[in-house]
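Backbone Fold Data
Goal — fold tokens
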Amino acid sequence: MKSRVVTQKAEIEEIINSAEVCHVGMVDLEGQPYVIAFNFGYCDGNVYLHSGPEGKKIEIWKKNPNVCISFSTDYHLRHQHKDVACSYSMKYRSVLVYGRIDEIAELEEKKRCLNIIMKKYTQRDNFEYSLPALNNVKVFRIVPEKVEGKAYGY
């Protein structure tokens, strides 16, 4: 079974929206790879993340805002013969998004972006946020510069 390149925007968005979390890859301050999982939101072609106001990733992004975000979904183990280990493979669909992470500071825009993230997980459109809560959270937007999709077994 061969891998298939996914190029259709609708299928790319379906894969992104089906993923439960995304994994954000970056290069740490010592030049080493660093990958962490995030809850996320996706709207109008942009990816939205949130985090606490401090930490390793924040320091990394100040120095190097380039990221690669991995989304994957639809895993299904398949085999040709149950007793032949080499006949097993995993079906999946995945998307990589390359871009630069930009912090959103304006409070109304933060609320809008947090609601995009919350809608993914709750299906609710609107939440209220206190001023202390908004001041204690960082919100980020990644505008994709390059997108790659792949499906294996689908």
